[in-house]
Amino acid sequence: METQMKLSEAARSSVTNLSESSFIKACRREQTSVTPVWLMRQAGRFMPEYREIRAKVGFLELCKTPALATEVTVMAQEMLGVDAAIIFADILLPLEPMGMALEFTKGDGPQIHNPIRQASDVDALKNVDAKESLSFVLEAITMTRGALKANIPLIGFAGAPFTLASYMIEGGSSRNFEKTKAFMYTQPQAWHKLMNHLANVTHAYLNCQIEAGAQVVQLFDSWVGALGQSDYKEYVLPHMKAVFAGIKPGVPAIHFGTGTAALLKLMRQAGGTVIGVDWRIDLDKAWSDIGYDIAVQGNLDPCVLFATGKEIRTRVQDILKQAAGREGFIFNLGHGILPGTPVDNVKYLVECVHELGQR
Ligand code: CP3
Fold first, then answer.
1. pLDDT tier at 18 (50, 70, 90 boundaries)?
2. What predicted TM-score, i.e. pTM, was given to this entire model?
3. Is the CA virtual torsion 221, 224, 225, 229 positive or negative?
């Protein structure tokens, strides 16, 4: 009884405090007193505490153990002092319940042992009931929401259909995406069927994450920058529209990709409350292309974190100058923190944004 009361009080206070979150406000393009910052891969191998846990459990096992996923998520947010937490999980987790044999091997990254080769492989994909087969992610979200400070929003996430399809067809990471593009060009019907399936799974999964306690969601279309504009329009855009249209209204959704300088306008058309930008384009140019009437997130080169404190500070200042005090700016890297990044530099980056981003 007492626990129940405590829980509902916590839920109420988290609602009131969250409306004061600089990160949520920036997603909605409301005025904030300071620029919010969080970092992709803020929980990962650059942290000694993470490596210690990983010495004992495999990556997939870590993702599938809610108490450990919670510990890692909360630890990163508190240690770095960032303005949001992102649930510890992986974009490839939904591939397993679809029927794909997923493995993370040391050094090689993800591998799928039964990649998609023909139309009948698409027909054989199973539907995903996230509440059943991805319940560990949803449990981790609810647990993390309870463990985070009430004013810190929790970001849920999923892979976008193109990026997921690329892993399913290539069987792992890829440089040129030749198998993916060959499938797209030679079997367009099967491609659209696959993308349609992934879009349905993705928005349903994100809505389950929202129901479990995520206040914001991010769609990772990490590798979509491999496509030209006309291919994006034909093979990706309609499916991204379907994903965004399916996400619970009112919940901010971040639309992220890399190498997307030529695709930003189309990505905006596809949807999202916030558009993610990488470092290959200047932030001011990117924002003027996307339109100042929508929020943006980015865009420091993760490699700057290997430079000196002085350089880090100068680069933060430069990005903030380009953001020009407009509403709707969220500071982040242009892609995830790399293994080997000095922890003190990451902490210093967050301090710099909070100090120089005062308004
Ligand atoms: O950002 C966070 O802190 C939350 C956790 C998170 C992970 N992966 C943990 C992870 C998130 C948001 C992801 C997303 C993800 N996963 C993406 C999109 C973002 C991006 O980087 O573009 C992609 C493409 C994947 C697929 C994936 N997972 C790859 C290619 C790899 C291996 C490469 C690598 O960086 O090692 C992973 C493994 C992975 N996912 C690790 C972590 C912390 C490293 C695993 C380990 O501990 O050995």
1. confident
2. 0.95
3. negative
